[in-house]
User: Fold these one by one.
Assistant:
Number 1:
Amino acid sequence: MKSAIRLYIIYRKNRDYLDTQLRCRGLNSRRLSQMLMRTDPFRDFDRLSEAVFGTTSRPAPMPMDAYRHDGRFVVNLDLPGVDAESIDLTVEQNVLSIHAERRPPMDGDAERVVGERTYGTFSRQLFLGETLDVENLAADYNAGVLTIEIPVAEQAKPRKIQINGSDSRKRISA
C-alpha cells in the first residue's frame, strides 16, 4: 500500500511514464485515486490562513522589522515594486496606518503565463506606545524598503537621578 501511495504521488507529476508502471503492478490510476480520497476538515482553514498570514515559501505581503536604536524607534517594511507615490502613512491616536498599492506592470490585454507575485492594496497598522514622539515621525522609501523613524519622547528616555545627602552622621538618643 505504501508503495502504491508513493507511486501515485509520483504519478501525478509524470503521468505518461508511470501509467505503465502502475499497470505492470496490477493497479490502475482510477482505483489508486479512489483509495487516496479522504476529507480533511482543516484543509480550507489552512488555505485561508496561508493566504492571510503567508507561508515560508510565500510570505505575507508586507514583512516588517522593528528595533530601538539611539533614542529612536525604527521600522523597516519590505515593499518591493511599489511606487513611492502610492504609499500612504497616517497617524491617528497613536495608531500608525500604512497603505501601499502594487500595480501589475502589464497591460490589460496581455496574457499572464505565470502569476506568483501579489498585486493590489496592502495595509498594516502599528500601535505605538505613549513614549514615542509621533509629531516628529520621518519616513524614507529606498530600494523597495520603507523606513519609518519615530523618536522616543524626552520624558521616556532614561535619565540619571542625582541623590542628595550629607556626609555627617547624626546620633539618635533614646
Note: Residues 31-38 have pLDDT under 50 and may be disordered.
Number 2:
Amino acid sequence: MRSTVLSKKQLSLLIDDCIQDVKGNGGIKVQSLGNLFRTVGMINKDNTIVALSSPLTSAGMVLTWFGISGVMSMLTPDVRQKYEKMLDLSSKELAELLAMLKEELCERRQERAAKVIEIIARLDALWIKLDEEISLLKTHSAESET
C-alpha cells in the first residue's frame, strides 16, 4: 500500500483485528476496513485500494447481518446446521483472504497486482455467495414461521 496516511504496520494491525473478528463470526471490523480503504484509496489516488473497499465492506456487512439478525434461531435444526456450516466455511475463507491481503500489502516490498486482483475477485465471489444465502435463508425462515 502506497500510503502516507496509513503505515504498513498500522494496516497490518487492522487486518489482524479483522481476522480475529471474523474468526469470532464477526464482520463489523471488516466492514470498517473496507470503508477505510475507500477513504485512503481516494486520498492517495490508489485505484487498487479503492477496488478492495467494496468487497471488503460488503463481506463485512453480510457477516454482520448473520450475527445480528437472529434469523438462525428461527430455523429448524437441520436447516440451521447447514447455514452454520456455510457461515463457518465462509468465515475461514475470509480470514484466509485477509491474511493473503496482509501479505501483499504489508509484508512484501512490492505488491503483486495479479495477486491483489485475485483477492478482489475472491472477495467479490464470497460476498455474492453469502448474499445469495441470505436470500435463501430469509425464504427458509419465512417458511418456518408458517
Note: The CA atoms of residues 25 and 91 lie 7 Å apart.
Number 3:
Amino acid sequence: MAYDVEAMRARLQAARKRARDALDGQFSDIYSELRSLDPEVIKNITSDVTDEETYEELIELVQEATQQNLDNAQLVARIKEMGSVAIAIAGKVSSLSGLPEFSNLLGDSA
C-alpha cells in the first residue's frame, strides 16, 4: 500500500487551520484552557481509559463549534450529548464551566 504524502499534508493543513480558527474564534478562551489541561486531571476523572479519547473529542467539538459559529447554548448541548465524562472534563475549564448554560447543565444532571 503506497503512502500518500500529499493526502497527509492536506489533513495536517486542515487540522492546523481548525486549531488556528479555534484560537482566533469566539471560543478561543475555552479552546486554550482545554488544551492546557494537565493530563493527570483528565486521568483522574474516572478510571476509564477512554477519558483521553473524550478529551480529544471535546477539543474537536470546540473547533467545530467555532467553524460552525455555534452559540454557547449549542456548544453546551453538544457537550451534554457526549456524556458524563465530557461534562466532567468541561467542568475543569473555568471559561466553559462559568457559562450560565453550563451551570444549567450541571443543575439538570444533579
Note: The radius of gyration is 15 Å.
